[in-house]
Specification:
228 residues, 14% strand, alpha/beta, 2 domains, 9 helices, Rossmann fold
Length: 228
């Protein structure tokens, strides 16, 4: 039976070295004229549109569709520049490259994304490391501001591509924040928490994920969960 593995991006697959935040801050200032517009806003585990709404509310600004589209367009332009800059913190997480390459060759596994990034942002971040093409389906911040609403979009796209739905127990949601775990639990998907982001093992354990790893250095251990 096919298994669908839906990966978060930031903190789970990679660290952009702050490229995303730098691009957002600059784009926000260019469009709305507010410097450091994301000051104090914790971004981990949230969707891009929700983060943007928080910044607008913090600045006392109303949502404006035209300006939002201008912000997104400029953000993508700036992100494509920022992600290329040398940065000591920019990296793939331990073991993730070997794991993705291995899973990509497994005929019973399909790789996908479940991320709060807008799709274009996800493409730019993963594309920098040559990984975007490994993921065939996904759900993104474009689909909903509420991360808890994203999983059904990924499931629908998988069913459309494969002309058949997948039993929810064969779906794994993999991420580094409590929100990743919380976004999957109500639907019955298996949850895999990896402490490679800003949350500790204990913080993630408190969310009762089905599986918990400190990192994926020993990525072969991850393969054992797919036998359940």
């Amino acid at each position: 039976m096919q298994k669908l593995l839906l990966f978060d991006i930031d903190g789970t697959i990679l660290n952009s070295g702050g490229a995303g935040k730098r691009a957002m801050v600059r784009a926000f200032e260019e469009v709305w004229g507010v410097s450091d517009g994301f000051r104090g806003i914790h971004m981990s585990g949230k969707t891009d549109p929700f983060i943007l709404r928080q910044a607008l509310e913090q600045a006392g600004l109303a949502t404006d569709k035209t300006k939002t589209e201008a912000f997104k367009s400029r953000y993508f332009e700036l992100l494509s520049i920022e992600i290329e800059k040398p940065n000591a913190f920019k990296k793939l997480m331990p073991g993730i490259l070997a794991l993705i390459r291995h899973l990509h060759e497994e005929p019973t596994v399909e790789l996908g994304l479940l991320t709060g990034n807008w799709r274009r942002g996800a493409e730019l971040k993963l594309g920098h490391f040559g990984l975007f093409g490994f993921f065939k389906v996904g759900a993104f911040g474009d689909d909903s501001e509420d991360r808890n609403q994203l999983l059904p979009f990924a499931l629908k796209r998988f069913a459309e591509q494969n002309e058949s739905p997948l039993p929810i127990e064969n779906v794994y949601v993999i991420g580094d924040t409590p929100r990743d775990v919380q976004s999957a639990q109500p639907y019955g998907a298996k949850t895999v928490a990896i402490a490679t982001g800003t949350y500790s093992l204990d913080q993630l354990r408190a969310e009762s994920p089905d599986f918990l790893f400190p990192d994926l250095k020993n990525w072969q251990h991850f393969l054992q969960i797919l036998k359940n």
